[in-house]
Amino acid sequence: MPHHVLIIEDRAFGSELGCECVSLLGTDFHCGRIRWDLAAGERLDWSNVALIVALATGQPAQARSLLDALHGLAVSIPLLAVLPESPDKELIQAACNTADDFVFLPLRQVELRQRVGHLLGATGQKSGAVCDRLEEEIELARLVGRDEVFLRAIEKIPPIAASEAPVLLLGETGTGKEVCARA
């Protein structure tokens, strides 16, 4: 049974990127598409949606507005943000605050499907399984913690590490900033 994916576009509905995203996901997914102003302005039925893909690739202010609107919805559905190739730091910060994962343009089918599969597979996992998977994937065995907020923050390391953007890590002494930087 295919998973239901809702693609929310920040550009005009029917953009080439929205069509490309649907085609890259393939027949394993049932994709619906909507403009972000409709997602933010109406009460949508989120009950069948397994994943939200936010195409935050338009003008920077418009893309940030999309992510801010999705952050305000407070739905417990995994969110994958698609960002432009060279986003500004405010957009990256908005994606880190809102999305469970993000990818940069140009879209690559293997990467998109892997991240979507990861997000869909992560639903319903126990925090111990998530922590074990993270230790294997990004070798963070020195990080100690099983809190959901901590695990969500650690899961953001791989997409940030894949970026060429500079990253500022802040925190109290002994919180693992150096370990995160090495990862």
Which secondary structure elements does this structure contain, and how are they paired or packed?
Layout: E1 3-9, H1 16-25, E2 29-35, H2 36-41, E3 51-55, H3 60-73, E4 79-83, H4 89-98, E5 101-104, H5 109-122, H6 127-138, H7 148-155, H8 157-161, H9 177-182
Parallel strand pairs: 1-2, 1-3, 3-4, 4-5
Helix pairs in contact: 3-4, 6-7
What can you tell me about this protein's structure?
Helix 3 runs parallel beside helix 4 (89-98) and helix 6 packs parallel to helix 7. This protein is of the alpha/beta class. It contains nine helices and five strands, in the order βαβαβαβαβααααα. Helix 1 (16-25) links the parallel strand 1 (3-9) and strand 2. The longest helix has 14 residues, at 60-73. 46% of the residues lie in helices and 15% in strands. A five-stranded parallel sheet has the order 2-1-3-4-5, with helices on both faces. The termini are far apart. The radius of gyration is 16 Å and the shape is globular.
Main pleated sheet: 5 strands, parallel
Low-confidence stretches: 123-128
Can you give the mean pLDDT? 75
Element-level helix/strand string = EHEHEHEHEHHHHH
Number of strands: 5
Order of strands in the sheet with the most strands?
2-1-3-4-5
* Helical content band: 40-55%
